[in-house]
Give the backbone structure.
Amino acid sequence: MSVSEISIQIKNAPGQLAQITAVLAEAGVNIKGITASSAGKVGWVRLVVDKPKLAEEALDECGFDVESGEAVGVIIADEPGALDRALRALVDEKINVDYVYTCVEHHHGKILAILGVQSPSKAEKLLKQAGLQTVVA
């Protein structure tokens, strides 16, 4: 099972990210993980939230173009080399990681990393075979 993720393309302008966080706050949606980036006039936001359907509906009602998808949530140790070990579990099977970000949620001294890959179920299987724990959100 994968992590539900929301992706939003926004204008690269002051206040755009704050509009998203305000909508989610008003809807009672908690942001577990977020990454935001921009290039030129365009920005992208990816979110892992506690109520994905509610978040998508609230953002859609406010005019945001929201896409939902799946990513892989893997719990890694909070130590040097932990992310490297997780990524190497995917390398031999030629699974490309399109993006990665970590979440604010901690699991007993470990970190939740979100991996964007083309085949989440295959990546999860490989990570588990490598002794890593994946999560469902």
